[in-house]
């Protein structure tokens, strides 16, 4: 069975359903030829994840794992694949959707006990397998995560396709201070018009609220995207579309610690878990605003000492190809030297308006965005 991880076809529900049925048909073809039914997928371990310096994203290597019916355990895995394909194909035919959690519980109603999932981790992994071998994103299967979408606030008018019809929304005029909620599949959005100059991705809800309350999106024509910690796939997909289709610079504003730098890394370079989707989710041109270790020193920000886990993470990042640039090596070495970390909200030690009146405008000017 093919494991091509090339570009996903952003086509119709019918296209996604057809891909799924083709996968099931391949098992029957294997039976007819007298072959043991099997399915090959890339091995999802750190040893099979490679950083592509040309694309500047994480990708899978050449190692593959085979799901084969030559053992009882392997046969049960393929049985679960067939049952899941049947469920997803029916879901698409009926134009319904479900969550990853619901799929796990739904399997308990399947007529064969051997087809039922033992845990949600197992069903989640199977959906990822189907994404890879079908070259169709789970959003096109109408599968949703449990978490609600992140929010966008800024000068953008769009049209969203919903099961209650198309809706045109302006992400300032037609929403409250909470902003526009990103749908599970941002490819159901058409960009109609915008007056934005750049995208500002913000790690924490508190800082996002500060920027909106201070009118930063309006004053600087910014699209403020709340990442909500480690950003969901939908958030990264929309951010990439804003960059690629509207030609908007993307900036990332996080806390000043190694875990937050990895949040930036997932926006810019993708993540190991979703390496098969890097070309849809990663925005290698994204720039890091801060909080930088340099800012901690320059502004004498309130800090906490680095924990042992922080030190280990920073040292690991020095070996991470995503962070092997002069800028990141300098910043990480400085942070290890000062032995401190700081949060976005620490900028409030200079007043509630400091971040929007001084810090961000100065940083954006230095970066050539303002």
UniProtKB/TrEMBL annotation:
It comes from Halorhabdus tiamatea SARL4B. InterPro entries: Spo11/TopoVI_A (IPR002815), Spo11/TopoVI_A_N (IPR013049), Spo11/TopoVI_A_sf (IPR036078), Topo_VI_alpha (IPR049333), TopoVI_A (IPR004085), TOPRIM_Topo6A/Spo11 (IPR034136), WH-like_DNA-bd_sf (IPR036388). It holds the Pfam family TOP6A-Spo11_Toprim. GO terms for molecular function: ATP binding; DNA binding; DNA topoisomerase type II (double strand cut, ATP-hydrolyzing) activity; magnesium ion binding. Belongs to the TOP6A family. This is Type 2 DNA topoisomerase 6 subunit A. The keyword Isomerase applies. Its cofactor is Mg(2+). Residues 198-364 form the Topoisomerase 6 subunit A/Spo11 TOPRIM domain. Homodimer. Heterotetramer of two Top6A and two Top6B chains. Relaxes both positive and negative superturns and exhibits a strong decatenase activity.
